[in-house]
Amino acid sequence: MGAPRYRQQAQREITVYWVTFLLTLVLVLAPLVPILYQSVRNQPLYKAGGVFTLSNYTSLFSQADFASIALNTVIFAALTTVFALAIAVPIAIPTERTRIPGARLLAQLLRWPIYISPLMLAFGWITVYGPAGFVSGLVREVAGYVPWNLYSLPGMALIEAVAQAPIAYLFCANALASSDSSLENAARVVGAGPLRVLSSVVLPMLRPPILYAALLIFGTAVETLSIPLVLGERTGITLFSNFLYEEGIDSVNPDYGLLGAASMMILVLTITLVFVQSRLLKHAQRFVSVRGKANRSSLLDIGRWKWVGFGFVTLYIAFGALLPLIALILRAFTSMLTPLVNPFSLFTLDNFRLIFDYAPYAESITNSLIVAFVGAAATTLLGTAAVLVARRSRFRFGRLLETAAQAPHALPGLIIGVGFFWAFAWTPGLGGIQGTLIALVIAFGVRALPSAYSAVSPSLMQLGRELDNAARVAGADWWRTVTRVLLRLLLPSMLAAFVLIWTTMVREYAPAMFLAGAESQVIGTTALDLWTQGETGPVAALATLQIVLTAVVAGLAGLMLKEKNRA
Question: What is the tens place of the pLDDT at every residue in 485-505?
Answer without folding.
Answer: 788 888 888 888 888 899 889
